[in-house]
């Protein structure tokens, strides 16, 4: 239905006119600092706990927009508002980041979750680009080093697994390091970044890759082999697809077209595998042997899965010209905008049931904040711009033709 | 549609002819001992991990049937088969029970979960009644004492909550102690049982009871007050209703008709509150302020919620003659048998989506085993027998009239 210019306009305006104002208006905690992220459909607050994942992601998002889109001081101030709360209250004595705090900053949940640290690193790394404040760089750098230190035991003393019986490693950490390595490249020495990137790509594309099925697993044995257990059979198509655009970014940086082609192929493969041919949308979780999942939410349609897919498809098209990416983009775009976008209030819905009906009317909660939707809108907007420039209008025609 | 005699017949035959044969046929691990509980619709095995909750519950179930229904040596042998695996592999060095083991008995998940110990206590307490084997009594007795020792810190070192910030206690332990106190009464001294029963009843009926709403909360402050947080607002109607028949059992033992009436009233209150007026069935989780749940499975219909409700309604009717219990029994009976029973293969489905469609076709998994369905069929059968005897046919007519 849309030309590339129309898509571009849609993504850009949705970001700037609907989604950002939602968070700027509703999520600032003027009283205690930081952000309130548990927001109802209309932006009213339904819970005041503060989750470090979401505080860090929101600081990152507004810093990134300030750095990449426009030096809008409202955005930088908003990022600093969150960062200052994080600095003051977010860390345990050993410097690792709590999982959650009360509204006034008292620790609620121990630093059991390494991704709190990942998002804090992203936040302060990106913020430092805007402020040049050495303190911000230090926080990012020190947190990043502590992530590397604990990467073989990310859950620390809170891990319930008996060591040695069935060792497994999880896809999420190497996957996020693919993204983090570029995010904080400016703080690390070049040799370290090169080694890190090489290692992440190997983990994501080889170690977690299952030859037999051609799919990427969520949990594997330390040597990368398949483990026939609930965890070993577990697939998360959206997670893989998100990783594939991180890999495409790395491929572009390295000038490695083979890597890019493979990431694009794996995007399409997992999208085809995860697509619900009955009701549309992408399943949240699957089992590689088709066995019952241990996750009751397996058939739900989650916002982040769909918006990350849009990014991967546009990047895949831009970097490989594979028209299958465009065909899928239009299909996933239609599903996503029809089901997740809320015509009345800025931010999008997050949780739909299998049929695409709203399951939880929240706009933000314990796991959903100011991150995937605005990041995807930004990434799609910028990628569509590059497509238009590269093809000198050709892609615009193509997108029109394909619809 | 049914008279009491017809219901009685239905519940009894379903237990003896369909459900028990399913587990006897499919769940015995003849090679490594214990039970295989991850079973597909037809009973075929889809995973071989062994979860201590489910091993203990199955030992308990077959021991209980041997003790209460018929001294069938196949049942006792089957219970001993599981008990011997548990004895050999189930405990850590400190005597607490692992959460899960590999098929051959190597520990997978640490003893972080106190309910593994609760079900082990029930298992060996009930088994001892059948075997008079002192070893079985010792295991039950020692495990029970360790539960009491750790009841203020049930998750031990694996608790992620920072101590002191927002102390909460959970309903599940006092609730299960209501049941456990009667289950292992034969192993404890009378004064201890009396004190324990008094304490459990107080916890369940007073401490977790929220005056304002008239509902029982899942998590409260140590003094029983409401905490406005995700955990504090969380409601689990099925859990409360299950607790209410434990309370009715205690009320009957104590001859406390006031307590019984209150438990019956709370059963009806939570059933009305939790009933899905759009699609039928009882919601899994709710929020006392109607706010979005943090649990994505909140609107699903789970087997145990429904079969526990059937027990509570029949006991409520038997002990109070409140006809509202009968009206609801027929409604919940119809929903439950129409949606959870599998016409082809013995054991029932466990997980339905909000509309009552099968969400996971498994008959047993990580959390569903040989427990709620057969226990409920047994409890309903025996309660219907008592109703028939007490009313000398009156209830039979009544059930007929109400339908």
Automatic annotation (TrEMBL), chains A, B:
Domain of life of the native organism: Bacteria
InterPro entries: 6-hairpin_glycosidase_sf (IPR008928), 6hp_glycosidase-like_sf (IPR012341), AGE/CE (IPR010819), AGE_dom (IPR034116)
Organism from which the protein derives: Nibrella saemangeumensis
Keywords from the named record: Isomerase
Listed name of the protein: AGE family epimerase/isomerase
Family membership noted in the UniProt record: Belongs to the N-acylglucosamine 2-epimerase family.
């Amino acid at each position: 239905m849309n030309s590339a210019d129309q898509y571009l306009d849609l993504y850009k305006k949705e970001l700037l006119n609907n989604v950002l104002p939602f968070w700027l208006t509703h999520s600032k905690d003027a009283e205690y600092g930081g952000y309130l992220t548990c927001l109802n459909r209309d932006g009213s607050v339904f819970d005041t706990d503060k989750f470090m994942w979401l505080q860090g992601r929101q600081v990152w998002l507004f810093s990134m927009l300030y750095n990449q889109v426009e030096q809008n001081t409202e955005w930088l101030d908003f990022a600093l508002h969150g960062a200052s709360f994080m600095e003051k209250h977010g860390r345990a004595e050993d410097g690792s980041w709590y999982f959650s705090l009360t509204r006034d900053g008292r620790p609620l949940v121990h630093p059991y979750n390494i991704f709190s640290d990942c998002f804090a690193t992203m936040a302060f790394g990106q913020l430092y680009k805007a402020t040049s404040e050495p303190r911000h760089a230090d926080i990012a750098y020190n947190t990043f080093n502590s992530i590397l230190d604990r990467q073989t035991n990310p859950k620390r003393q809170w891990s319930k697994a008996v060591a040695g019986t069935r060792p497994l490693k999880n896809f999420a950490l190497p996957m996020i390091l693919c993204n983090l390595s570029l995010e904080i490249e400016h703080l690390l020495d070049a040799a370290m970044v090169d080694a890190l990137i090489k290692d992440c790509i190997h983990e994501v594309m080889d170690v977690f890759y299952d030859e037999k099925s051609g799919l990427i697993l969520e949990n594997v044995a330390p040597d990368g082999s398949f483990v026939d257990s609930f965890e070993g059979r577990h697939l998360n198509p959206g997670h893989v697809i998100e990783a594939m655009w991180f890999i495409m970014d790395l491929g572009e940086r390295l000038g490695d077209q083979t890597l890019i082609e493979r990431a694009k192929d794996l995007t399409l493969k997992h999208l085809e595998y995860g697509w619900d041919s009955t009701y549309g949308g992408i399943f949240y979780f699957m089992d590689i042997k088709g066995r019952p999942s241990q996750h009751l939410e397996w058939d739900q349609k989650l916002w982040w899965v769909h918006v990350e897919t849009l990014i991967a498809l546009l990047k895949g098209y831009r970097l490989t010209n594979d028209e299958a990416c465009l065909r899928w983009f239009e299909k996933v775009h239609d599903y996503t905008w029809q089901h997740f976008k809320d015509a009345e209030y800025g931010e999008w819905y997050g949780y739909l049931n299998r049929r695409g009906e709203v399951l939880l009317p929240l706009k933000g909660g314990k796991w959903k904040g100011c991150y995937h939707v605005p990041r995807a809108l930004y990434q799609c907007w910028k990628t569509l711009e590059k497509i238009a420039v590269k093809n000198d209008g050709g892609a615009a025609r193509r997108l029109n033709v394909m619809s």
